[in-house]
Design goal:
mainly alpha, MetI-like fold, about 75% helix
Length: about 290
């Protein structure tokens, strides 16, 4: 066998070993990724399967008042309570989020930007139950707001604020620098640049963040458990300083009624409605992101 044949054989063996390693690497990565994909999908499928028998128009759009706190009828007050808390949180948090994002883009030094990013990442890592305890001490007791819609909205606003700020910063950062430079060359003030250039360009990204924030707020239970919701005795709040019921705490309450078949069925149905509501906001955010 000549030198040329040996070289070709070695090259072929090297390629074969490379292909084997590539396939092995792909197989390992796939095996590691599959549980992360299949387990949540299986959990969601199981919840929807268990909740489907309870779902009906009357179940979603009627009230369970006088029926054992929803054991045998509708969850409409709980659904509205969850939406009121989430929307209230977004209304409270949005001005602060936009203001912080604009400060970061217009006035902050590079060092301040780094410190702000680290601080926001730290805030995102704090367990929401800690904010719930803070709200219980400060707003419920010290400020005497009581367990109320207002207290829950403020606490949820604190929970979602870091995410809203980071999303707003990212939305503003995606605006082409040429747009800002052209506006400044025309002599526009900071306010004019913000209202005429930045916000019209960044609104899809900002709106996407708002929808994701609503979905996040709908997913939180611990903060509102101490600050906003009650298990019974309330259907509709008369003011923002009245407590509300919510799907999150409704599920928590019913899941403890292990001896009641009806309660468990309603809990599964409530969970299916909550997941579907969160998914709708997430899908709408995904659609806006493509604009």
């Amino acid at each position: 066998m000549n030198q040329s044949s040996l070289t070709s054989l070695n090259s072929a063996c090297t390629k074969r070993r490379g292909l084997t390693r590539t396939r092995l690497t792909k197989a390992i990565i796939t095996l590691l990724a599959l549980p992360a994909l299949l387990l949540p999908a299986a959990s969601l499928t199981y919840i929807l399967f268990k909740g489907a028998p309870a779902l009906s128009f009357d179940f979603i759009f009627t009230s369970g008042e006088g029926q054992g706190f929803g054991h045998s009828s509708g969850i409409f007050p709980q659904l509205i309570g969850s939406l009121l808390l989430a929307l209230g949180a977004v209304l409270v948090a949005t001005p602060f989020a936009l203001g912080t994002a604009l400060y970061q883009q217009l006035l902050a030094t590079p060092r301040q930007r780094r410190l702000l990013e680290r601080f926001l990442n730290m805030l995102q890592g704090i367990p929401p139950i800690v904010f719930g305890l803070f709200g219980l001490i400060v707003f419920v007791h010290l400020m005497r707001w009581g367990v109320s819609l207002a207290t829950g909205a403020v606490i949820l606003a604190i929970v979602i604020l870091p995410m809203l700020i980071l999303n707003s910063v990212a939305a503003l950062a995606r605006i082409p620098h040429e747009y800002t430079a052209a506006a400044q060359s025309l002599g526009l003030s900071h306010g004019a640049v913000i209202w005429r250039v930045w916000l019209p360009q960044a609104w899809p990204g900002i709106a996407t963040g708002l929808l994701l924030a609503i979905a996040r707020a709908l997913s939180e239970t611990a903060p509102i458990l101490f600050t906003a919701t009650v298990f019974s005795g309330v259907t509709w709040p008369d003011s923002i300083f009245d407590p509300v019921t919510s799907l999150q705490t409704h599920i928590f309450y019913l899941a403890q009624e292990g001896g009641s078949t009806t309660a468990i069925e309603v809990a599964w149905g409530s969970a299916a409605v909550l997941i579907t509501t969160v998914a709708l906001f997430s899908l709408l955010a995904r659609w806006l992101r493509r604009l």
